[in-house]
Amino acid sequence: MLRLEARAEPSYLMRWCSPLLAAALTLLAGLAIFWLLDKDPLEGLRYFLVHPVKDLYGVSELLLKATPLMLCAIGLAVGFRANVWNIGAEGQFMLGTVGASGVALYFAESDSALILPAMLAAGAAAGALWAAIPALLRTRFNANEILVSLMLVYVAQLFVSWLVFGPWRDPMGFGFPQTAMFHDAALLPVVLEGTRLHLGFPFGLAVLAAGYVFMNRSYPGFRMRVAGEAADAARYAGFSTRRTVWIGLLAGGAAAGVAGMMEVAGPMGQLTDKVGLGYGFAAIIVAFVGRLHAFGILLASLLMALLFIGGEQAQQYMNLPGSISLVFQGLLLFFLLGSDVFIHHRLRVGRAAA
Amino acid sequence: MTDRRQFLLSASAAALAAALPGSLLAQEATRIGFVYVSPIGDAGWTFQHDLARKELEAALGSKVQTKYVENVAEGADAERVIREFAASGHRIVFATSFGYMNYVERVARQFPQVTFLHATGYKSGKNFGHYNARFYEGRYLTGVIAGRMSKSKVLGYVAAFPIPEVLQGINAFTLGAKSVNPDVEVRVIWVNAWYDPGKEREAAMTLISQGADIVTQHTDSTAVVQAAEERGVHAFGYHSDMSKYGPKAHLTATTHHWGDFYTKTVNEVLAGTWKPAGVWGGFKDDMVRLAPLNPAIPAPVRDEVAALQDKLRTGGFHPFTGPIVDQAGKERLSAGAVMDDVALGKMDFFVQGVASRLPNAR
Question: In what way does this protein cross or attach to the membrane (chain A) (predicted)?
Fold first, then answer.
């Protein structure tokens, strides 16, 4: 008989090594997969991990891809730390694209420097508004925020579809589901000449820093953490559960909304019905692989972006199947959760002692 | 940056040339990249493009080397994939879905020596063009078959999104059916997805329950044909010959054939004669065909369809020939007139005979 026994004191060191261990195990499993697919494993890993960052342009693409992931993930982490389970960042992301696009289209004639800040504010507000629905239902009616936030993703998708097929459809676009391309004043400036890396990346780093200060260095952040780790203690200390829920969801919604704004004002340059690319869901993995910590999230978002682009290039150069990126993402989360189990528990052989 | 990479590339090519026997390099293969919007699978839009890629390889042999990336979302990621093809020495890139258009445009500006083509879009430039096929011609023919064979006079149509290409198909199907059977009606269910077998199946089941005895789809899976087989009604496939998914149900299919077009385009680019034009081919160009007809289709109907098909091939017939009246009773095309490509490309109405309403009717 095998059974798991909780460790009295999980090693602090190992808690931080767990993502590294998971990454190493993912690599090993990856080697095995390449070998099983009859591809040279080392070449596979090279295309997966090294080739995407072979030059400055590659690095810029990696940072570009990581930007929405880190933004969504840091917002989610604020809630997750307090056991507020916002699964709907994807929908909040889409609402962010809608808010930003609305500003860009409404002021299409203007080239004021205020357009981008207004788009940013509208994106954040729209994302937060979408997250306010599960917050309200949770605090008022005790409705499960996991279900509500998840279901709202599908509503958001239909809302975006309705907009781009209906009122916001580009009149010159032959009926395709897309808005007009944004004008220059509504596009984020590029920070690295010749690449697509835009102002969103440094902004994302600033948000990560702010997230760190809030979660680790502020009193409201401390209250959130206590609420997450010891709900009874938090209640005893008089910390408001409602406020925890509201802060957790609004932070997640606003951050995802900002990420959405940066996608339409950055590499897309318009709103289409294909705007939901899964960043909001991938960010859940990023948040956990990053240990719900700002610095960890930075690394995890880079790793996820690398796995994604690496999977693309493994296809492009080795004709591997397209699902390879998903397999790697899944492996990473699987090994992380697996490592965590053994860090918090001990495997025992035999019957439980009485 | 680019210069240095070019230099490194040519330097390594030179090193490679020194190391390899001459025969291998007698002719360096032209590299061609394909970007697919969905997984290849074994039927559907991307499957037909991949089939064409293989036909291209078979036709040009060692002159070409093709690579593809499947399941590339029509968002910012597409630009990276397209650019990577261009930057890594591919001379031609086929981006096989509408949503790649704006990304193709941007990359094409950065790589003037590479030729880009995107399917079903409408923009073009010095080194990028677009291509599509007149699927509505096949739809008209299947409509004729449906009009002749339907007993309930209700036809079901599962559709993805109300964009012009889909509306052309639904309207041509309806016009074809009504040309031989003025009483038929076509019911449409929108599934708001290109590929969602669950929803497509559910929509087909609903249509069949509403009395449709022939169903078809403008979505990407085989679910509708399978549903028809299960319920003992008839169906038309789309994109690919889907007869193996419903041997009894499958009457025929409007199938897509890009192989000759790809081969021709590559030859033109290699010869330096390629010009950025919008290509929109139909039966005449062999880009659209009907899959083999099911023996259940009566002989007179087969003859009728064959005659129409010949007319389409010679250009003697256009499915959108007036009078064309929309649902509201408004005449959209006067008697005898033929709809031009601009009007076709902007189609935003249902013809009379479609019983359902457009979702965004304005």
Answer: Multi-pass membrane protein
